[in-house]
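BUG-398 | component: ligand-complex export | severity: low

The export step for nicotinamide-adenine-dinucleotide jobs runs without errors, but we want the raw record kept on the ticket for reference. Input record follows.
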Amino acid sequence: MTQQQAVTVLGATGSIGMSTLDVLTRHRDQYQVFALSAHRQWRKLFELCLQHHPRYAVLAEPEAAQALREQLSEHGSTTEVLHGEQALRDVVAHAEVDIVMAAIVGAAGLLPTLAAVEAGKKVLLANKEALVMAGELVTRAVRAHGATLLPIDSEHNAIFQCLPNESATGAENSLASRGVRKIVLTASGGPFRGRSLEELGQVTPEEACAHPNWSMGKKISVDSATMMNKGLELIEACWLFNARPEQIDVVVHPQSVVHSLVEYTDGSVLAQMGNPDMRTPIAHALAWPKRIESGVASLDLIATARLDFCAPDHQHFPCLNLARQAAEVGGTAPTLLNAANEAAVAAFLARQLSFNQIPQVIEQVLERLPVDEPDALEVVQSADLAARTLAQRLIDAL
Ligand code: NAD
Ligand code: MG
């Protein structure tokens, strides 16, 4: 019998968290759920605790934790309920934990992701914002602590699968030395592809969150609609694969079947394809280097019939270029971009900002704030705070 691996799922109540639990449930002989975390949704976490019997459940706040604790004890559950940041760090770094799924959304995921890396775990990274805001610190910690960082973002997981075997993430060799000419990230183009600027000015949060191909949390859905998601992914790819921004192309591919491509110096182009379902990259990373069943249906090429590709529309969706520029500037520029974007997206979801004002806020934050060398966590955190504060001031003044 193979030994069970213990898994902590951060952000268990979210879209990626739920897909992860779906895959884990198919392989109860191989994986056991050690801890589950959520922000405030204690009722949903309660259901998950009854299904998966984790040793620990972690919520952000004490009130929600107390409510969950009472419900669980009424139902005779042995799950221990904890709360707060230190508890998150404890359940990722625990000696018995083998695998951590980092699926908290936004900057809130940085510290627990870093803690998992520093404990040398196998870390499945969905929380792209952690790498965007602190790529240098995270990748340095991966090397220093012998952690394994595996990409869950479908594009990065695809690239990882298309790269030569020996160049797992965190590779220190240049792409050229691995025979790679460039990386091509595919983008669906989001729900608003082809709309006029006037139409884009009127779109609602509900429309932005109705993605044509993927079912995701609200923040990443808005990021997909603005194409900031592809910008964040460009920065994420630079860190994961030791690439420079100019080595990464973006093409719009509305069917979301080709998840990304790697072009080699001999002209070969390798792509990874599949149905747009996050259980594929999750299962891939969980079992890597083996393969396990994910629950995803076979790709029906005849029903798909066409694979279309076109250039991104930078005029209507300026966020992608804002991210590319931040990647080129380096330092804390991506930290500022990420924080300004989080503030702008939250304001758009709260109907305080129109869709077209999202890039305007980000651009102004990038223009006004200085860029520092992100060599310590405090530098990253203060850049993040400065960008959020300025973005909020700009939003309030609109
Ligand atoms: P989601 O909004 O559905 O879920 C987010 C999870 O994080 C929830 O469990 C929530 O309780 C928790 N959370 C939120 N704020 C928190 C806080 N301050 N402290 C602690 N926990 C908090 O988001 P999602 O779509 O599952 O995305 C999660 C991450 O994965 C994001 O970084 C996203 O960019 C990335 N990702 C998602 C997809 C996808 O298909 N959904 C694809 C690629 C990458
Ligand atoms: Mg993606």
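Assignee comment: Attached the raw record above. The chain has a mean pLDDT of 96.
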